[in-house]
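Sequence and fold
=================
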Amino acid sequence: MKTKICILLIIAVFVGLILSCQVLMAVTDVGAQVAGAAGYIDRNTADAISTSARAIGTAAEEITPEQEYYIGRAVAANILGSYKLWNGNTALTAYLNQICKAITINSPRPDVYNGYHTAILDSNEINAFATSGGHIFVTRGLINAAKSEDALAGVLAHEIAHIQLKHGIKAIRNSRITQALLVTGSAAASAAGMNITQLTDVFKESVGEIFQTMVSSGYSQVQEFEADTTAMSLMAAAGYKPQGLIDMLNALKSVQTSSSGFGKTHPTPAQRITNAEKTVKTHRVADTSSSRTTRFTASTK
C-alpha cells in the first residue's frame, strides 16, 4: 500500500510539472495537446506511468524508453513555457512531419516510445530543439532561413540525431536522476537514503538540467559535431542530399548571431561546416533535390 501511495505522489508531482503546458502527441493531428491543462491525467497515461514504475528494477538498470519519453515530455513542457506554439499553417506543420517521418523510418531507430513529432514555434529566432520524448521544435525564423527541402531535412536530421544519440539523457545520466527514476516505494527510498520529497525534487532538478543544456548552455562541441555527422548519415539513408545540411549552415552564417538561438548554444556555422566537410563526401547519394523544389516552395510560401 505504501509503495502505491509513493508512486502516486511521484505521478502527482510530474503532472504538476506539465500543468497547463502543451505537448505534441500525434503526427497526423499536426496539432498539440495540452498536458494536464485541466489539472488531471487520463487513465491510459496513469496506467502507462504505473506500468513503467513497476517495471523498474535495480539501480543498475538503464533508463527505459518509457522513462525517456516522460522525461522528454516534461522538458517539452518547459520549452513551451518559454516559446509559443504556432498553428498558423497546419499544412506546413504536416510537411515538416512528413520530412521527419522519411528520415526516421529509414534510420537505425525508426520509432521511440510515443513516436517522433514536429511542431513550429512562433519565434523569429533561429533555433530548434529536440527532447528524448521525440518532440522536435523548429522556429519560424529557422524555417524562413532554409532555401530547400534538403536544407530543412538537415535541420530535422540534426535534431533527430540528438534524440537517437540520447544526448538529452546523457546530460543527466551521471546525476541523481537515476536514483529518482529507479527508486520506487518507501522501502527502496529509505534504502537509498532518500524520501519522497527528495525524489520529486531530484526529478524537477534533472528536467531543469536538460532544459538549461538545450536552451542556455548547449551541448558540448563534440556532441554537436556528432549530431551533424549522424544527421548526414540519416539524410543519405532517406535519399536526401547530405550537402543540404552544409547549405543550411552556410545560410545561417549570414543571419545567425552569437547571442541567441543556434548561435548561443551551438558551435559557429563555420566550425560546423569544417567538421561536416570531413565526412559529407563519403555519402554517395543521387541528387534528386530538384524533384522536391515544387513542394518545398508550395509548403513554405
Summary: The chain has one domain: 2-300. Confidence is low (pLDDT under 50) at residues 1-41, 48-61, 184-192.
